[in-house]
Amino acid sequence: MSKQVTRVDTLFLHQVDDDYLVVVQRDGKRVLRGKLELKETNAGPRPLRFLVIRKGEETPRDPSQFVELARSASRIRISQQTSNDGREELKEMLDGYQLEALVVRTCRRCSANGRYSPITDETAIKAEHEYVCRDCAVRELEQELSFAGGLTKAAQERLEELLYETQDLTRITNLLQGELDPDLTKFDTISATTEDVDLVDTADLDVHPNLKSMLTDRFETLLPVQSLAVRNGVLDGDDQLVVSATATGKTLIGELAGIDRMLKGKGKMLFLVPLVALANQKHEDFKERYGHLGKVTIRVGASRINDDGNRFDPNADVIVGTYEGIDHALRTGKDLGDIGTVVIDEVHTLKEEERGHRLDGMISRLKYYCETRAARRDDYGGAQWIYLSATVGNPKWLAQNLRANLVEYEDRPVPIERHVTFAKGQEKPRIENRLVKRAFDTKSSKGYRGQTIIFTNSRRRCHEISRKMEYNAAPYHAGLDYKRRKRVERQFANQDLAAVVTTAALAAGVDFPASQVIFDTLAMGIEWLSVQEFSQMLGRAGRPDYHDRGTVYLLVEPDASYHNSMEMTEDEVAFKLLKGEMEAVRTVYDESAAVEETLANIVVAGKKAKSLNDRMLGELPTTHAVGKLLEWGFIDGLDPTPLGLAVTRQFLSPSEAFRILDGIRNGLSPYDIVADLELAEEGR
What we know:
This protein has 25 helices and 27 strands. The chain has five domains: about 10-115, 2-Layer Sandwich (Nucleotidyltransferase, domain 5), CATH 3.30.420; about 125-175, no CATH class; about 200-410, Rossmann fold, CATH 3.40.50; about 415-580, Rossmann fold; about 590-680, no CATH class. The relative contact order is 0.08. A seven-stranded mixed β-sheet has the order 5-4-3-2-1-6-7. A seven-stranded mixed β-sheet has the order 10-18-25-22-19-21-20, sandwiched between helices. Helix content is about 40%, strand content about 20%. The N and C termini lie far apart (about 70 Å). Helix 4 packs across helix 5 (about 155-165).
């Protein structure tokens, strides 16, 4: 016998037809594989033939070599899958040499391939009608994954965790076919948490009598985050950054301060939001709630076109606006009147690549406007600033740099279950339909049906998905006209819709009390979601006055991306988002953004533009930006040229301005110029 098998850890015997497969292991590795045939003798069963198998070839050996191997083995094991007769025959043969063997449960697939893989109740994994070892189950899972398009390491690890947990391969592979096994799709639960806060009685608030009357009719006490804001000086005129989860009552904090100061003659309230859809909703809410106390108007800058002036009244007591709408008023020298309170909702927008620097600049320009206006009349102490967000990764830094008191409330009114399942793009609507039906067919303990928000990455996809829902569903995005959006909002509020399918329009806080959020994709447009955007969107699931819990589903397409500029795949992004840390809110300036904001500051403040630059969150290279503005002919000295005025009033980046100028010089029609701009924006 070869010297390399003189020391044997395990000798394993497994029946294959009429022969027995022999596997010899040393240090956990197979060192010999062979076949054994027995014969019946007067002394009982004995080896008749022993064949060693190497590289597919069978080489006869003296049967005594098998006996030698068996004697040198530390343990001998017989597969439980061997027939009863076979086990008895093997045991009788081994007894004849005074050798003992145990019958063990083994992986049949390994045994058939000459591998010894014992399995137990704890390690066996069910694969259809048999039980296999973990290695065989993982190999089969990997084959299924290759058919599904291939998953990244994080996704594979997640599936393997579930495989070991459930010990059922079929249940795991069914996930790849879009099966909705809630025990397997569930990734985690964000628990409901309530911070212990002494609530403020509305009757004790030091506010204008008309406002107090409204408040005491609606509530006996303020909510926890509202109570914290009052105790931190929101009714004393102190600036505040309020960071608290969706549906915890942040908006009322701004209303408390703004309406109170307005009624006391300390200036009007500006309530500013990032999107037209959200501005429209807030405008309607405020007109209904406060219209009897003062005039409410709206100022938006849709598609960079100034509104016609019919709806906007600069003399109103409450102005609801988009960031761009108010910034356009500042850039064009509009008189906004005396401002007492500015509420910046969704202030985390400051970190966004395109919109962040514009919000940063608008805040600086609006502060300059308010300070200049207050200097003319000093019978009240200037504007109070209140910043609201549900998702800020660096709240202390942000509050310090905004020069605001931080009010942070760690609260989740209802628990949120987060689920992950895998599906091809064309299969997702089928799964979404089942989830929407399941939610709508269920009522909460408060008596409300479950309703769903489906987030996807394009307006076209919104319509495509909503058409495939069996229950009433509607698309909702910025491309719909105002009346249609309002109709959808009304239908959802009345529970006439089971689902809305939207792009980014709802992420920023349009008020749809949904119990369930489904991510049809993890992209918005051609970019992956950030952790902050993802958290903001999933926070729409579950409202304390309506639902017992929120549910979130991520429908992940393996190995998918939605634009060639995307470096990651959807399954990679899914686990990055689920496990990721909230990003810091900071505004980062490249040359283009620095030039754009410096030009806007010059248009608004002239020679004082540098002081506006200096107090913005991002670091602006002012000298370099001014040099570029001079070089490009946007300013003359520190005065804007007609070209500079046109560029800043239309919110054009330098590259967009040059592209338009080139189009004009080349005789292109306005339609061709616009098409060229759109293609450039899409990276085409």
